[in-house]
Amino acid sequence: MAGHFEATPGGGAAVALDEVEIAILRSLAVQLLELIGPGDEPAEGADPLAALFAEGPSEPPTDPALARLFPEAYGDEDGELRAASAEFRRFTENDLRARKRDDALAVVRTLDALTVAGDGTAVLELTGDECRNWLGALNDLRLTIGTRLEVSDEDEGEAGSLYRLPDSDPRKPMVMAYLWLGALQETLVETLMP
Fold first, then answer.
1. Cα separations (Å) of 57 from 54, 70, 95, 164, 179?
2. Which of 23-27, 147-151, 175-179: highest mean pLDDT?
């Protein structure tokens, strides 16, 4: 189980993590929460139905990592498509941000609930719902780190070149985190497949 998720009865998954891995995952999830930004809590006494129809932004984010997390729906070549993307974003981005926030918060909460044993390890056991939250958060973390590292879709197939970075390369720690998150994500997906 060390280093990869395994299926548990009832549709969940478990993985053994050490204190350093727990700290890294928690730190990355908190940074993701900071990047996504706080949610808009409805004012006390506010109409809950009105919150359902609240409009979000119509312009794409300027930060490349946020633009990757909240991409254009229809591309940006054609003026008509640009208008449709803006309209789509206006009615969907708030909900998408809330879901991404919930996923990252689930990671933080499940890690905070762990009890580390005397040998410095803990077993993280996730329910089926928590597995889905973790999958979403792991994906968002990889997209964010990949964007910061300028990893393209073509680079994905050539992960070996990422492994060959010299230790002196300042990107090396983030590349290693990117690859590790990918391995965690892959084993978590495998546990959920029938």
1. 10, 11, 11, 41, 32
2. 23-27
Mean pLDDT, the chain, integer: 87
| pLDDT over threshold 90, residue 171 | no
Backbone dihedral region of 41: left (phi > 0), alpha (psi from -120 to 50 degrees) or beta? beta
CA distance 194 to 12: 12
Model pTM? Answer: 0.86
Sign of the CA dihedral with 161 first, then 139, 176, and 152 last? positive
Distances in Å between the Cα of 178 and the Cα atoms of 12, 55, 75, 133 are: 24, 34, 27, 18
Q: What is the mean pLDDT of residues 124-131?
A: 96
